[in-house]
Amino acid sequence: MAAPERSGRLDAPLRIAWLAYRGNPHSGGQGVYTHHLSKELVALGHEVEVFSGPPYPELAPEVPLIKVPSLDLFRPDDPFRVPKLGEFRTRYDVAEFAIMCTAGFPEARSFSWRIRKVLQGRQADFDIIHDNQCLGSGILGLHKDGFPVVATLHHPITVDRDLDIAHAPKLWRRLTLRRWYGFVGMQKRVVSQLPCVITVSQSSATDMCAQMGVRPQTAAIVPVGVDAQHFSPRPHVAKVPGRLMATTSSDVPLKGLIPLLEALAKVRTERDDAHLVIVGKPREGSILPAAIARLGLENAVTFRGGIDNDGLVDLYAEAELAVVPSLYEGFSLPAIETMACGVALVATTGGALPEVVGDDGDCALVVPPGDPAALASAILRAVDDPPLRERLGRNGRARVLDKYTWAATAKGTADVYYRFLAERGDARARATAGAPL
Q1: pLDDT tens sequence across 262-283
Q2: pLDDT, tens digit, 9 for 90 and up, residues 375-386
Q3: Tally of domains within the chain
Q4: Sheet strands (E) in 191-329
Q5: Do 164 and 183 fall into the same domain?
């Protein structure tokens, strides 16, 4: 398949190496992003090969997966495991384990080393290398090796780090978190030198330039999407009176679950049938169980983990109201999933959420982040007003169909590729002619 630089066409199909240092299909957004965007890029006529570390993504049949094995130190059934001696085959394995033993998170760094070795000498095989938020030193190495590298940074990880540290109750925990987030310095160094960085919202673009050193001229905004055919209203599923729902990819302060629990306690003083289903599960050492007990919510909060997409849509259909209580979001897949399902939504103004859901009262009721009283007031307003919920749900689905489909994400991403390759070609031409870059 001819590359645009060789064919002279700016719309020629591209050969894309997609890099995912982890691709969990059921937790977090990286696996979802990888699955849907690779599928839709192929539908546009491009060739995509996904190179991934474990946990591996679930891909469409037409998208090949090239596994890049690691020690898989954080597998769900054995987190922070100690590998057997025979598992250490390369210096990358030794370094990966050593970083974990010093309380660091090694996966982005070690995957980048491995993938640079895997792709060594293959510059002629791909038109684009697309890194999905690994941003390890080996990714910068690929750029220096002559590969055309584009990266996605969904939102600056500095936000997660700062919130986690600020909410840590003890000094030892704050010190441990600083070590865990030690990779952030590497990511800042790498992303500040890459020639093209895609992000998912204007809020994230502003923040990654301010906090990660991304150069504004290298930033491009392409919102993510949702499978609106699958995530759709299910009128045959009965609503459960008082049912609230929140979907969280991780049990961290960033997601705002403590303010939501405090809001639920306030709501239950007026609506004793109000209860919350949280799609996800508390991590080991979580403060959520203690907060639930403190607020007397033991019989009003349920965690549901391991839900497949079909079960998730049923849960949305059963909910009278979904809540995204995040203190910050670079985008928010749960918000657009809720809207696609035609379910009324309460969200905060954290990060990009106002961009995603629109004006207050249109597709969602919008409140400040970290404000349990405001959250409770909005929840009560919605649960007591069925016509309002119906209107919010109807408007939300229309907004998703207009703005947030994976086909639109793929088209926008391909447009970024073409612009980048054209600019790269111009820069090479100027360099060849001896003109300043």
Answers
A1: 999 999 999 999 999 999 888 7
A2: 999 999 999 999
A3: 2
A4: 197-199, 219-221, 243-247, 275-279, 301-304, 321-324
A5: yes
